[in-house]
Design a protein that fits this description.
Helix 2 (49-67) packs across helix 4. The chain has helices at residues 8-11, 49-67, 98-101, 104-122, 180-191; strands at 27-31, 36-40, 45-46, 76-83, 87-95, 127-137, 140-151, 155-166, 169-177, 194-195. By secondary structure, it is an alpha+beta fold. The protein has five helices and ten strands; from the N terminus they run H-E-E-E-H-E-E-H-H-E-E-E-E-H-E. The relative contact order is 0.23. The chain has a seven-stranded antiparallel sheet with strand order 3-4-5-9-8-7-6, sandwiched between helices. The chain starts with 7 loop residues before the first helix and ends with a strand.
């Protein structure tokens, strides 16, 4: 199986109509590895390493159950923030060498098809829609993937993923939300973040 992006929290979220209070205190974050600065909206708290590991394992199990194949997860979390029970903001990276792993964009679409298929297989009562495009953030082009999962009388969840190569590292930002207001806050935060040139 091709490399799988580490978006497992999105696969295991339990849908709930939870609207956590929004606080004004942002969390400033800087990644020296990617020279990336972002302000995470108030109301989001850092997820512990133990919980991150449990979330990753649940996501791996969902993919493995769907495709009857072992998942190789090489992703390293930069952070996972959470607001309420079902709103997550995640950044991670993993090795990606085009000489060994193939074309990045083709692999990106292949993996997203697998993620989409996992949602469809594991959430049989849901309507699942997806789209792909490209988005510029601070002058850099990111491949994007969006999945909207709707369960009648239970609500809607949106997963947004942004990914690009930095040399031989694949950098990914993902947000999973059930609250449109929090989704917009995360989008604003991400789209206004800065990468040092």
């Amino acid at each position: 199986m091709k490399k799988l992006f580490s978006l497992f929290p999105a696969i295991v979220i339990v849908f709930a109509a939870c609207k956590a209070p929004i606080k004004n205190n942002e969390t400033k974050f800087y990644s020296s590895e990617f020279k990336w600065t972002i302000s995470v909206p108030g109301g989001f708290t850092l997820v512990s390493k133990d919980k991150q590991a449990k979330m990753a394992r649940k996501g791996e199990e969902a993919l493995e159950k769907t495709y009857n194949n072992k998942v190789i997860n090489q992703a390293k979390n930069i952070f996972i923030f959470q607001n309420g029970r079902a709103n997550y903001f995640q950044a991670n990276y993993e090795p990606f060498d085009t000489s060994k792993d193939g074309n990045f964009i083709e692999n990106f679409h292949l993996v997203n098809n697998l993620i989409y298929g996992t949602f469809v297989a594991q959430m049989k009562d849901a309507q699942v829609d997806s789209s792909s495009s490209a988005q510029t953030v601070n002058g850099l082009t990111f491949q994007t993937f969006t999945v909207v999962v709707t369960i009648t009388n239970k609500g809607k969840m949106t997963l947004r993923e942004y990914s690009r190569l930095f040399d031989k590292k694949q950098f990914t930002v993902a947000m999973t939300t059930t609250d449109p207001m929090l989704e917009q806050q995360l989008l604003d935060s991400w789209l206004n973040s800065k990468f040092d040139k």
